[in-house]
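User: My instructor asked us to take a sequence, write out its structure as tokens, and then describe one feature of it. I'm not sure where to start. Here is the sequence I was given:
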Amino acid sequence: MTYERIESAALDAYSAAVSGAAERAGPAVLKVEAAVRAAAGRRGRTPAPPGSGGRYQSSGSGVIFDSRGRAITNAHVVAGADGPDALSVVLTDGRRLPAAVEFADPAVDIAVLRVAAAGPLPVAQLLSAPVRVGQLVVAIGNPYGLSWTVTAGVVSAVGRSLPLGGREVRDLIQTDTPINPGNSGGPLVDAQGRVVGITTAVMPFARGVGFAVPTAAVLEVLARQQERQERAGPGRLGVSGMITEIGPELRRRFGLPVSRGVLLVDVHPGSAADFAGLRPLDVLVAIGGAHVPSLEALKGAIDAVPAGQSAEAVFLRGGRLRKTHVLMGGVPDAGPLAGR
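Assistant: Let's start with the prediction itself. The structure tokens for your sequence are:
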């Protein structure tokens, strides 16, 4: 076999490995879009249009690891994305779905999202085994908002440390795979399409120097969060309220099966309800799919959602039916709903 044929065969094998990895992992990759508070503006964020309430648009990437709709991204991508409709994701098939932050760990720049999907979603396999220097890796993401872009390179080094957002993130994978703004939170995969890391940053003013959080570190974060949730017990909403009647016109307009809801008298600052955008005088109709025509029903609906988990809240405001996702906290409420 001539040198040219050997070279051609090697290039064909390389191309097949890259395209195969992208085909396996690509369907599970998300585009993450967040409207964040101006004070939280950081890299990769552009000013939102006038009338946006002083929020910025943050765009990044993510990867689904659970068919129920749980996805991994970077904590810095979603930092400051609180309130209703602040966070959404776009799937490879073009569907745009609402999402909520389940939890975030800025120390390792990892966040887990809960995507509101009607059915199972494609998932990527997480590989905890350590990578090797020189190993082929492929990054999939949305650099500069360009959807589902694939780049390839090798692992340049392991065990790197990098200051991010005032913290030092350790044990990062260094790669020469091109990583640009918008790639953040997307997967770094091996030749089999298995996720070996979550891309997080690039070295400013340097080409070919990107970093990713190893999957092993991500799995440790997930395990710690699971332990906290198991210890935490029921979640907390952070409201005080009273029962109120829902008029027949509103019931007919929105097809509501209940004639009562919970009028929010107080929304505690910094609570789960506050971060979800609920306000005093909102009327809660349902939490987590359960209608709440009484305080006892609301308490039961909240108790059914563990701390650290997200639930959909349906409520009336200004004669309109609205929805938001509430990430349940662990702080007891006060007032008529004391303890929840």
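For the description part of your assignment, you could build on this observation: The chain has three domains: 3-115, 136-230, 239-337. Try explaining in your own words what that tells you about the chain.
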